[in-house]
Write a structure and sequence with these properties.
Blueprint (H helix, E strand, L loop, with lengths): L7 H5 L28 E5 L10 E7 L9 E7 L8 H7 L14 E2 L4 E2 L6 H21 L3 E5 L13 H17 L3 E5 L8 H4 L3 E5 L7 H8 L3 E5 L2 H10 L4 E5 L13 E3 L1
Parallel strand pairs: 1-2, 2-3, 3-6, 6-7, 7-8, 8-9, 9-10
Antiparallel strand pairs: 4-5, 10-11
Helix pairs in contact: 3-4
Length: about 270
């Protein structure tokens, strides 16, 4: 289903408080794709889909999963790094897209043990956009409403080989592919890039731990109420719920395990 963001006019009446998120009245620029509904329950189910908790109307799931009936569905795609289990595909089919250092070794994101993709130059970016564009099309065919491209901030972990311009140009290619299939697309993290929203052509934000790192205002200044927040610590979740009552905020366990699995945590506000 397609959800159309029509709340800007209604919300403008309550935006007088300078602490409120800025209302971005750009509905005319949305096109046929719809952004997530405002102030709606959110769940982040990247570790595997399960029935939506009561009150949840927005859910993010991996591109290998299926959308949830009756909700606004966001399709997760790892577009800047190699998803676990997929390295053989890249080495076989697109070896030139694996970022290597001066010694020819793969550059790895040590936090997740994921190889980083090389976004330097228009030729590489076009090849990468073709691969990821196929995944985006698959999300559209499956019935998702929007795309979340992870690891926009990969350049910060690239040993200085990649830069902001590479990230912005690459995400723009992904956004064009998403919009061509009537899907909205999120900026994922990287608060330092919000000033380049127009270049990226992003429609909303998926922000992890923006309360923990005091980044939420940067996102709301650029995207208004179009900010979805995931927190992994109770104190940050509680603070966010108090500071941003009109945003969709969820508390999840860091491993994002399905409901019923050991370590599962979910709360929303």
């Amino acid at each position: 289903m397609r959800w159309i963001f029509l709340a800007a006019v209604a919300l403008s009446a309550c935006s007088g408080n300078t602490g409120d998120p800025k209302v971005i009245d750009d509905a005319a620029q949305v096109g046929p794709w719809g952004r997530p509904p405002v102030d709606t329950g959110l769940d982040y189910q990247l570790g595997g889909g399960y029935p939506l908790p009561a009150g949840v109307g927005i859910v993010a799931r991996d591109r290998s999963d299926t959308p949830a009936a009756g909700a606004y569905n966001i399709c997760y795609v790892n577009g800047f790094q190699v998803q676990p289990g997929e390295q053989a595909f890249w080495e076989s089919e697109h070896p030139g897209l694996l970022l290597r250092d001066a010694q020819g070794d793969l550059v790895i994101d040590d936090d997740w043990n994921e190889a980083i993709l090389d976004t330097r130059g228009s030729t590489r970016r076009a090849e990468l956009a073709t691969v990821v564009g196929t995944w985006i099309a698959g999300c559209a065919d499956a019935g998702f409403d929007a795309i979340e491209i992870d690891n926009l901030d990969t350049y910060t972990r690239s040993q200085g080989l990649l830069n902001e311009d590479d990230a912005v140009a690459t995400l723009r290619a992904f956004a064009d592919a998403a919009h061509a299939r009537d899907l909205a697309i999120a900026q994922k993290n990287a608060s330092e890039l919000v000033g380049r929203r127009d270049e990226m052509a992003t429609d909303f934000v998926v922000a992890e731990e923006c309360n923990r790192y005091d980044e939420c205002d940067a996102y709301t200044d650029a995207y208004g109420f179009g900010v979805l927040v995931i927190e992994y610590r109770r104190q940050d979740f509680t603070r966010g719920c108090q500071a941003y009552p009109d945003l969709s905020i969820v508390l999840r366990d860091r491993d994002l395990v399905p409901e019923g699995a050991s370590g599962y945590i979910f709360d929303d506000c």
